[in-house]
Amino acid sequence: MPLITGLDHVQLEAPTGCEDAARAFYGALLGLAELRKPAALQKNGGVWFALPDGRQLHVGVTPDFQPRRKGHPALRTADLNAVQVQLATHSVAFEADDQAGVPRVFLQDPWGNRLEIVQGQHESHFGA
């Protein structure tokens, strides 16, 4: 049995006071359901969201926040066109491309962190 059996969550960093913007962006705009953080962690701030596949996206408060411009999560969608319409309707800038072999868009969250939203799956190969 492998030591690692899957991915549980991804945490993005955000500045103090990020909660309302996180709910508006990840909750209202992208449609993710908010999760209740464990009581012991609520004092740290931030917001957790559920992904439809059972994984989670955590927005955590970082005192000396710096946006991540390269490292990023890639969220999956079944309808990239609908995502693009939603982003455009809410004046969220994005860049579309298919250089990785699948349609995708890159955008930034409210604090400048890079995000990717991809339709389909990237091809993966083990070994050379």
Automatic annotation (TrEMBL):
Residues 6-120 form the VOC domain. InterPro entries: Glyas_Bleomycin-R_OHBP_Dase (IPR029068), VOC_core (IPR037523). This is Glyoxalase. PANTHER family: FAMILY PROTEIN, PUTATIVE (AFU_ORTHOLOGUE AFUA_3G15060)-RELATED.
